[in-house]
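Morning!

This is the sequence you dropped in the shared folder:
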Amino acid sequence: MKLTEVRGIGEKRAKDFKKIGVTTTEELVRYFPRTYLDMTNRVSVREVLHGDMALIACTLVYVEPVRSKGRLKIVRALLEQGNDNFTAVWFNMPYVAQKLKPGEYLFYGRVQDYYDRISLMNPTFERLDANNRLKGLVPVYPLKSGLAQWVVRDGVRRALEAEQFPSVIPEELIRKYRLAPLPDAFRAIHAPNTVSEMHRAAERVALEEYFTLISAFKLIKGDKGEARLLRYSVTEREVANFEKRFPFSFTPGQQGAVRAIYDDLTGPARMNRLLQGDVGSGKTAVALTGIFMAVRSGYQAVYLSPTEVLAAQNYALLQTYFPDYRVGYLAGASTAKEKRELKSALEAGEIDILCGTHAVLQGDVHFARLSFCVCDEQHRFGVAQRNTLSEKGEGADVLVMSATPIPRTLSLIFYGDLDVTTIPDKPKERQAVSTSVIPARKYADMLGWIRGEVKRGKQAYFVCPKIEDDEGEVASVTELYEKLRAALPDVRFALLHGRMKETEKADTMSAFKRHEYDALVSTTVIEVGVDVPNATIMAIYNAERFGLSQLHQLRGRVGRGNEKSYCFLLVGSESETALERLAVLKSTTDGFKLAEKDLELRGSGDFLGTRQSGKFLSEIKNLSYGTEVIFTAKKLVDEAFERRLNYAAIRTAALKKYESLKDVVLN
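The structure's back. Tokens below.
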């Protein structure tokens, strides 16, 4: 039902909820807390550490007028706890200034502690007075508009009373496996009495979501295969000769991947293969060999990259390894004339290989005889986008690649009937990267050592963690950039972040690669694909806030040349859990082992998130649940389909929720 049908939610309030993507009672009860405040766990400002999430009871003394810094709107408040002063800072949330009045509050946010100046970044807050005595576990919701926490809590409570909770899981299986009623689980997530009750409720809701998603995969995949329409004439000898163009010998893993692609292209069914390999395993060389099979057979090929930085890098590679073929480049930054001329040549068959970004997917991009599509860093593209690419050629073969290892436990469930090739080894030339955990007391020593390496001609990355608010992220990395320039005035620093234009990013990376800069201060935008062999140092701030797989990806940006490389993990919180996770990273360079460990330590909900699963499961990204939920859901789906329990209802619910999957050919 519409939110305006709920008592207490009028048109104005409904507009506020719409800003966070909530327009119905169903969406509101599925708008889960991102965390909970334990009212018994308040801390002293003297005890907090840089990077901590802290709940602090204090007095708000003064709110400064809203300041502008470029596109940023900054609100700063002065807070007191006893004799200790600290601040709270909000980025691009000017409405906060109107809501804050002097008095007693609870603030909850991320701690920044630079030079003994403590600030809470973008904290949530609650007024403490006689009418607001918060107790027990209190949900905290992710907010992006003028909504207050108490407004969302009150709205959720009313929506829970109005909403029905039909389960897709057949009633017979609910009884057989003694599953908790779904309505009880939703209520316990929003108003838990204990942490254990909240976890049990989260697992029940996650089970429902995985059951629906896995059912959709099962319905879409089926048993169908597509017969081959295109005939390749390239010979194995020609493929072997092409491999000799590379300045290294293919590893057994690369050779196996090339063989799998060749067998696909000369077999009876159209190829749709996932090629996954760890950082530095040589996937790009395999992809270029597949492209050669296509163009040598008289067809066109396309190489799709998620960013202009990577597209430009891949374009240069294609020109190097295909000097006898015509290579084109298409990206958003291309001029109108360049785009027009390229599209005309492409449709006329005058271009053999097209390299580009999302611009390639536009409706006016036509090929004469496209047969081979490469989609680099497949998790950056939606399934519909990959399908759009393959449909630009009749019966085109598709190779999607990922350097983000998918844990075997997940791939068996979600990609069980996909053709998956894994490159398990690395080129012998690659050196292991020395990995160290750096506590705060060693920070100055690390900077001094890096300065010495830079003077020896080496280059370094400094990576700032992503934070919830994009503007806050930009402010955070900019602040780090300025502090590093002040600390190391003789080092040439460049700045890179996600809010820059693609052309700016590409120019900055190109200049860094040409060694016009000694160091690059960046967000995780450099995580994938950037290749600067002279960069031998990676320093990652607040490393405990990253997943192991993401840290491994960042570490993979160094160690790409012949020089010894180093990765420094700077910790803001030296908790036992954080140090345990980072110790795992120090002990292995196997990305697939790390992915499995990441899944074990962080749980599947956090591991998948929105980045690796697109819109799939995005509703439950804030929930905490274990890997066993996935296997239980798979078991229930298999039993429901085998016994045809509630089949029509499951089909309707699964395909309605995940209708975007209908366009995907996974076999």
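Headline: Residues 468-473, 605-615, 662-667 have pLDDT under 50 and may be disordered.

More detail when I'm at my desk.
O.
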